[in-house]
């Protein structure tokens, strides 16, 4: 795809369907905000169906909604800043180092604050119930979310041996195909909308494996498969994919799960943390 997506929509506006024009009008009025919306949120906000959004994308020769979001992010950035270097919400090319540090600090604090506001004690409790009763807890994610899955595995490995981390998407589906209802998946997906994730979750449903999902979007596809949904804060644009600020909220949720789990299993976790700490000391000079 070449050119500014807004110009492309303008050129094709009169040939769009009624719902297409309605969606285009919403995008013109909310170009900056639209890039942060899931397809479900955009459908609800614009008053059109998800199918209409998909058809709208195809009419613009886009592969799907994610490509539209990326195009809108680029268009929004060029409009605000004049050059596509970094998100206009965070860093500008004329910023000093001190200004960059301040903006990044503010973004991370915002992520923590928003995640705290979204924190649901009942959902945390339900997630810990599942983890506490599980034989194995598979920590899954793809791309940047895979890093968060590894963080969860590493954190919980200091207190229990039941956590398992698998990076490869093929190995993930193979493992869940042999899993049982005694197992649990802790799945990280900021977007909640990836094919690899859906592949795993469909098999998990068939095997009756419970799913704890950490995501940003409460109406994403992944939430349809999850037993427990924990929401992280911070609106990350497509041009910020993998930002530290988006990860900070997820790290906070990992810590919440970890300490409530340890509180529920105090004696066992205390012994395990002591044993792992002693093992690690042998590695230090």
Summarize the helices and strands and which ones pair or pack.
Elements: H1 5-12, H2 18-29, H3 31-34, H4 39-46, H5 50-59, H6 65-81, H7 97-118, H8 121-133, E1 137-141, H9 144-156, E2 163-165, H10 169-177, E3 184-188, H11 195-207, E4 210-215, E5 228-231, H12 244-264, H13 266-281
Parallel strand pairs: 1-2, 1-3, 3-4, 4-5
Helix pairs in contact: 7-12, 8-12, 9-12, 10-11, 12-13
Features:
globular, five-stranded parallel beta sheet, 8% strand, Arc Repressor Mutant, subunit A, single chain, 58% helix, 2 domains, 285 residues, Rossmann fold, alpha/beta
- Tell me the overall shape: globular
Give the SSE order as H and E letters. Answer: HHHHHHHHEHEHEHEEHH
Give the proportion of residues in helices: 55-70%
Query: Would you state the CATH class of the largest domain?
Result: Alpha Beta
Give the DSSP E fraction (strand runs of 2 or more residues): 5-15%
**Name given to the CATH architecture of the largest domain:** 3-Layer(aba) Sandwich
Fill in the CATH topology of the largest domain: Rossmann fold
Low-confidence stretches: 79-88
Q: Structural class of the secondary structure composition?
A: alpha/beta
Radius of gyration: 21 Å
Strands of the biggest beta sheet: in what spatial order?
2-1-3-4-5
Q: How many individual β-strands?
A: 5
Q: Mean pLDDT, nearest integer?
A: 89
CATH superfamily of the largest domain: Glucose-6-phosphate isomerase like protein, domain 1
């Amino acid at each position: 795809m070449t050119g500014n997506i807004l110009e492309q929509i303008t050129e094709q506006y009169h040939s769009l369907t009624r719902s297409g024009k309605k969606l285009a009008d919403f995008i013109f009025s909310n170009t900056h905000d639209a890039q942060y919306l899931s397809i479900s949120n955009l459908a609800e906000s614009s008053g059109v169906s998800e199918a209409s959004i998909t058809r709208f994308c195809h009419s613009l020769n886009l592969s799907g909604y994610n490509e539209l979001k990326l195009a809108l992010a680029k268009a929004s950035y060029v409009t605000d800043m004049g050059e596509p270097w970094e998100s206009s919400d965070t860093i500008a090319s004329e910023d000093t180092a001190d200004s960059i540090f301040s903006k990044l600090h503010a973004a991370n604090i915002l992520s923590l604050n928003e995640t705290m506001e979204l924190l649901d004690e009942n959902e945390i409790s339900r997630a810990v119930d599942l983890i506490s009763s599980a034989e194995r807890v598979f920590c899954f994610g793809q791309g940047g979310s895979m890093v968060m899955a590894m963080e969860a595995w590493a954190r919980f490995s200091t207190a229990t041996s039941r956590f398992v981390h698998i990076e490869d998407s093929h190995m993930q589906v193979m493992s869940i195909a042999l899993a049982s209802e005694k197992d649990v998946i802790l799945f990280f997906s900021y977007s909640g909308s990836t094919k690899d994730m859906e592949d795993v979750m469909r098999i998990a449903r068939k095997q009756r494996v419970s799913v704890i999902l950490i995501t940003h979007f409460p109406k994403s596809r992944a939430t349809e498969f999850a037993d427990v949904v924990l929401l992280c804060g911070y609106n990350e644009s497509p041009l910020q994919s993998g930002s530290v600020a988006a990860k900070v909220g997820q790290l906070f949720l990992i810590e919440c799960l970890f300490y409530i789990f340890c509180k529920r299993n105090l004696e066992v976790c205390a012994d395990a943390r002591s044993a792992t700490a002693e093992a690690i000391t042998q590695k230090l000079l």
